[in-house]
Amino acid sequence: MHKPGIPDDLPAPPELWARAATMAAVEAALPSEDFSAFFSVHANGVTHDDAGGNTWTLSLIEDGRAVLYGCDVEASRTRTREPALDLLADAPAWLPLERLASMQRGAELGFVYWHDTGWHRIDYPADLPDDGLASTVGLTADTERLVRHIAQDAVGQRWGGEEVEDDELMEALEETVRLAQDGALEDMVRQARERALSAQSFAWLGHGWEPDVSAALDVAARAGLVNGARGHR
């Protein structure tokens, strides 16, 4: 059941996890000599960081619980509101409260949503314009925006993009983008939901260059997106 103040399009934790961790695996498959990944799977969960101070993390917790937190340095008006807004007021004890409180003291926290049979957050004042959720997590919740990320950031910038002078290679990169747009990326997310990512899942990336499938599968396994993997919790 939808709760007042919670965006209708905020995915449930397993879906958001599958989408973000899939992107981390895709990025791991790309050449990365000159660029660092936007998505990562780590000890505290899965994170998106745009390298401009805008970031969010999803942590999966036992019994189907989860916490989603992050910040948009410009859009998160929760950080600068006077009097200060306590994003952890009445938060459940099972959240990583020490970590979140430290972030809040450092003005690094723009929103905190926790999931326990549904998404929850504190009640916001009626005149609060934005907490930064849409501008950060929105990228991962929207398949079309993920495809744009593949085209512009992952494939384009990380592999030279417009600087590529090899016509054959440029055509191969464009084919990779076309395949993403035609459903290859969406199909990967579906497989991730089913814990069925495999080497074949990354085949659409291998047009004119060799993706690092081993690195990609390592990320997918740590995230629990392959058969037999326990995954991170």
Entry keywords:
alpha+beta, 233 residues, six-stranded antiparallel sheet
List the helices and strands and how they pair.
Layout: H1 13-29, E1 39-42, E2 45-49, E3 55-61, E4 65-71, H2 97-105, E5 111-115, E6 119-120, H3 133-136, H4 138-141, H5 143-157, H6 167-193, H7 213-222
Antiparallel strand pairs: 1-2, 2-3, 3-4, 4-5, 5-6
Structural write-up:
The protein contains seven helices and six strands. The chain is α+β, with helices and mostly antiparallel strands and 233 residues long. It has a six-stranded antiparallel β-sheet with strand order 1-2-3-4-5-6, with helices on one face. Strand 5 and strand 6 form a beta hairpin. It is globular.
Largest beta-sheet details: 6 strands, antiparallel
Instruction: Determine the mean pLDDT.
Output: 87
What is the overall silhouette? globular
Residues in helices, as a percent range: 25-40%
Evaluate the radius of gyration.
Answer: 18 Å
Strand content: 5-15%
- Number of alpha- plus pi-helical segments: 7
What is the number of E strands?
6
Strand and helix order: HEEEEHEEHHHHH
**Gap between N and C termini, in Å?**
25 Å
Instruction: Give, in spatial order, the strands making up the sheet with the most strands.
Output: 1-2-3-4-5-6
Poorly predicted regions are none
